[in-house]
Design a protein that fits this description.
The chain is built from 14 helices and 19 strands. The radius of gyration is 22 Å and the shape is globular. The chain starts with 5 loop residues before the first helix and ends in a 16-residue tail after the last helix. Bound molecules: flavin-adenine dinucleotide (FAD).
């Protein structure tokens, strides 16, 4: 980026309603931080927007000065695209309003809101947005633009399946509404194509009624029995009704109060679940988990939705070093399970999680080309959350996760775009089918022909 003259920055400051932060300014250091501590990038300018006009002005300013743009929603993505070196960081973190229309069961959410903002406001009416993740400090922006799944998405669909419309600021600095009726090609693209087509200043979602508490909990199984447990789990979860989501996480046990002290810090298999329905029926459905192999302990009950949705936040706070590798898994075959057991057994850090959510249900009944989220039929995701603290551990952690991921490639088909690290164009293409990719390129050609928005899992225009 060429040096932007002070006079031009001053002119920008005059029309910008939020804060324009430059290196050395008081809030500059905190504003440039993102969730993944691996990234220490320093934008030339941070534009902290407080309204849609600020976003338009920031896009125009960056484009007219040939500056790289990074858009920060929740700043949570492990690939680090919310921040750039030099360039302009369009920071949406002050844009967090959530307005619920309880009568029509819809909610309008600002582009920088966090999932916890949405849960807190919708729960005032016993409502929730499906697909809204599992960690409350994740951004709605990045999550939704990539697809968005959560505890109730097997029943009610991905976040994009519940998206009614979005306001998008394009590369030309125009404010467009994207919905089934207005700019439908853009609406198709933003439902899975990430931040490639513009900056979304607000999303409007359908809500679902879930009440204020759900029957949910954790059953902690012994790592020694992991193979037997996974052989059971792979078939058991696929036979459950959509109202029940049962996932699994292999990690070192946190100091949970319901676990014996000697288990704290030991490798375990955590089986969390959420049931949307009657407590007795939920208890009946989870009984086989309890019976199949021995457990270290469990904590189960009616949990307030907001508490459940933020209950795991402490395990993944901002600031640690993170590198994620992921793919969708066609089948948890014995060979695949063997790879998980082998690599989980030699985790190089106590904070690593091998996270295997079960995805089938309502999302897989949507046609694969209806939205840009292409891989809807694969039953499982294998997400390797590699997380550690010290730079000196980088090499051993990165080497472990790369080898682990490679060893499971034979069982994989596609990847969720939101779980990609910075892995190059071929991997971005893996998030889509050929047909979806070609259509995404057409949408990119139309709305961002010069690739102004490239700090993302980038879809290059072909013009
Ligand atoms: C601990 C953890 C748990 C997670 N759990 C889940 C989960 O349960 N379900 C799930 O589906 N995903 C989950 N994710 C993945 C999550 O969906 C992505 O990391 C997502 O990109 C985060 O969105 P963000 O706005 O916080 O990210 P950011 O880092 O701010 O942005 C990510 C990308 O989206 C773009 N972007 C963000 N907001 C906008 C906007 N308003 N307009 C245009 N572009 C924008 C950014 O420019 C960037 O390219 C999780 C991630 C983490 C780290």
């Amino acid at each position: 980026m060429k040096q932007i003259q002070d006079t031009i920055i001053n002119e920008f400051k005059e029309i910008f309603r939020g804060e324009v932060l430059l290196p050395g300014d008081k809030s500059y250091e905190s504003a440039r931080q993102i969730w993944n501590g691996m990234f220490d990038r320093k934008p030339a300018i941070i534009a902290r927007c407080i309204g849609t006009s600020d976003v338009i002005n920031a896009v125009n300013f960056a484009r007219d000065n040939n500056a790289l743009i990074a858009v920060k929603g929740g700043g949570h993505n492990s690939a680090g695209n919310a921040v750039c070196d030099d360039g302009v960081m369009i920071d949406l973190s002050l844009l967090r309003r959530v307005n619920v229309d309880a009568k029509n069961k819809t909610v309008r959410v600002d582009g920088g809101a966090l999932l916890g903002d949405v849960d807190t406001e919708t729960q005032l009416y016993g409502l929730a947005v499906s697909g809204g993740g599992i960690i409350s400090h994740t951004g709605v922006g990045g999550l939704t633009l990539g697809g968005g799944f959560g505890w109730i998405s097997r029943k009610y669909g991905l976040a994009i399946d519940n998206l009614i419309s979005a306001d998008v600021i394009t590369a030309e600095g125009k404010l467009l509404t994207a919905s089934a009726d207005e700019n439908p090609d853009l609406f198709w693209g933003i439902r899975g194509g990430g931040g490639n087509f513009g900056v979304v200043t607000s999303f409007t979602f359908k809500c679902v009624e879930i009440g204020s508490a759900v029957y949910s909990g954790l059953i902690v199984k012994k790592f020694d029995d992991i193979k037997a447990y996974m052989q059971f789990h792979r078939d058991y979860v696929r036979g459950l009704p959509d109202e029940m989501s049962v996932w699994m996480v292999v990690r070192h046990a946190p100091p949970l109060p319901f676990l014996p002290k000697e288990v704290h810090g030991k490798l375990v298999v955590i089986v969390p679940f959420v049931w949307l329905g009657d407590e007795a029926e939920g208890a009946r459905l989870i009984k086989p988990i309890r019976e199949v192999t021995a457990s270290h302990g469990e904590a189960i009950g009616m949990n307030p939705w907001v508490a459940w949705q933020s209950g795991f936040d402490g395990l993944v706070e901002h600031g640690a070093r993170n590198y994620w590798k992921s793919h969708h898994i066609k089948e948890l075959s014995d060979d695949c399970i063997d790879r998980v057991v082998e690599f989980a057994g030699k985790m190089p850090s106590d904070e690593i999680e091998v996270f295997i959510p079960h995805m089938e249900g309502t999302p897989s009944r949507v046609q694969e080309n209806d939205t840009a989220f292409a891989h809807r039929k694969t039953p499982f995701v294998l997400n390797i959350h590699t997380r550690w603290r010290n730079v000196s551990d980088d090499e051993k952690c990165l080497s472990w996760v790369r080898k682990f991921h490679k060893s499971t490639e034979a069982f994989a088909q596609g990847v969720y775009v939101n779980f990609l690290s910075d892995e190059g164009e071929t991997r971005v293409k893996d998030a889509y089918t050929k047909e979806v990719w070609e259509r995404l390129v057409q949408v990119k050609n139309k709305y961002d022909p010069n690739n102004l928005f490239k700090m993302n899992q980038n879809i290059k225009p072909s013009l």
